[in-house]
Amino acid sequence: MKDKSNFENIDLLISQRVASLEPITLDQMSAIKLMNRTDTKFVTNKQTLARLLEMTQGKYYAQFNNGSFVATYMTTYWDTDDHVYYMEHHNGRANRRKVRVRTYMDSDTTFLEVKRKNNHGRTNKKRIEVPSQKDLRDSDDFLMQYAGRTLDTIRPTVRNRFHRITLVNKGKTERLTIDFDISFHNFETNRDRGTGNLVIIELKRDGNVFSPVLDLLRQLRVKPSGFSKYCIGSVMTNPSLKTNLFRPKLIRVRRLVGDDAVTLA
Question: Considering the domain 4-257 in this protein, what is its CATH number?
Answer without folding.
Answer: 2.40.320.10
